[in-house]
Inverse folding.
């Protein structure tokens, strides 16, 4: 065989090998989904993550013309359900609606114990949305802005108590970050849930706390609480009257929960692409935006690549914040 013939034969073999490799993937994308999909939420029914998951599950079921079964697998701060999805077959039939800000924090606080590596054991499909936190104070607190609150804290160190839903929770970390960036001393009072903390905030047993946007929405018109700031870089569409951290004199402050849709690592790229395309349409639909707005969630569809970058960034950022605030698992 002459040199040209050999090159031609080599090129043909390479093309044939490429075709044989791509054929199964193309078939997977064309045939997907061929059976029901399980969409895991790693928290109990009735919470914010569960509500978002059920909206996404319903819309995905309609878009893919197949049953999408929402399955609650709670336990260990959401880590049990997340670990089960990380170990599931990488075929697109087991997905996780993840508050991955929480998972990034868990990965630092419980290093080596969560049962998964957030940046290696999952294939991000898209960012789903952002859930802002709101800084609330009791109306008796003589502060109508964050800077006035900081001034009070500086004038009387440890005179202001703040509540949270427990050590290491996003609400706790937000307040600790505020303390560090404002250089103030406050007293942390942990609670076993958002309800008891808000009750004590209304009653004046604690003076301030960060809480999720839906909590503020439930109390915004009662006069029993006062909101000073939303925690996102841009003003919230749900609460446009609330200033951002930068507008409140805290340009480096940014704390909110990022929701994302994840598949097990190794899920075929055409399946990820199909799910991403459907999710972008779902998240851009006016009905989805309206339903998310009630929950305080702002849709934020992205490419899989941008979602992966967000996961990587969150892991690095929260490790730095937790170390700076000296927050450890209890």
């Amino acid at each position: 065989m002459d040199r040209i013939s050999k090159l031609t034969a080599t090129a043909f073999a390479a093309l044939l090998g490429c075709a044989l490799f791509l054929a199964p993937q193309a078939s997977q994308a064309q045939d997907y989904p061929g059976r029901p999909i399980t969409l895991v939420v790693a928290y109990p029914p009735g919470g914010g993550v569960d509500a978002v998951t059920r909206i996404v599950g319903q819309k995905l079921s309609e878009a893919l013309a197949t049953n999408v079964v929402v399955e609650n697998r709670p336990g260990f701060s959401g880590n049990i359900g997340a670990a089960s999805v990380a170990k599931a077959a990488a075929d697109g039939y087991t997905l996780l609606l993840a508050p991955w800000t929480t998972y990034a924090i868990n990965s630092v606080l419980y290093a080596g114990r969560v049962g998964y590596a957030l940046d290696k054991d999952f294939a991000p499909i898209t960012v789903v949305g952002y859930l802002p936190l709101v800084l609330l104070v009791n109306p008796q607190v003589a502060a109508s802005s964050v800077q006035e609150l900081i001034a009070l804290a500086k004038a009387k160190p440890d005179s202001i108590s703040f509540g949270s839903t427990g050590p290491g929770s996003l609400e706790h970390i937000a307040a600790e970050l505020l303390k560090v960036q404002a250089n103030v001393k406050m007293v942390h009072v942990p609670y076993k849930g958002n309800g008891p903390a808000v009750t004590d905030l209304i009653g004046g047993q604690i003076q301030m706390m960060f809480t999720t946007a839906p909590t503020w929405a439930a109390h915004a018109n009662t006069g029993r609480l006062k909101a000073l700031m939303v925690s996102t870089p841009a003003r919230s569409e749900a609460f446009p009257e609330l200033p951002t951290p930068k507008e409140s004199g805290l340009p480096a402050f940014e704390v909110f929960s990022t929701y994302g849709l994840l598949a097990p690592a190794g899920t075929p790229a055409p399946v990820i692409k199909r799910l991403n395309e459907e999710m972008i349409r779902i998240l851009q639909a006016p009905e989805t935006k309206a339903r998310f707005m009630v929950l305080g969630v702002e849709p934020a569809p992205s490419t899989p690549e941008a979602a992966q970058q967000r996961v990587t960034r969150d892991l690095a950022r929260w490790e730095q914040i937790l170390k700076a605030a000296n927050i450890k698992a209890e």
User: Anything to note?
Assistant: The domain at 132-230 is CATH 3.40.190.10 (D-Maltodextrin-Binding Protein; domain 2). The chain is about 45% helix and 20% strand. The beta strands are 37-41, 68-72, 94-99, 122-137, 161-164, 187-190, 208-212, 226-230, 256-264, 298-299. The CA atoms of residues 146 and 248 lie 6 Å apart.
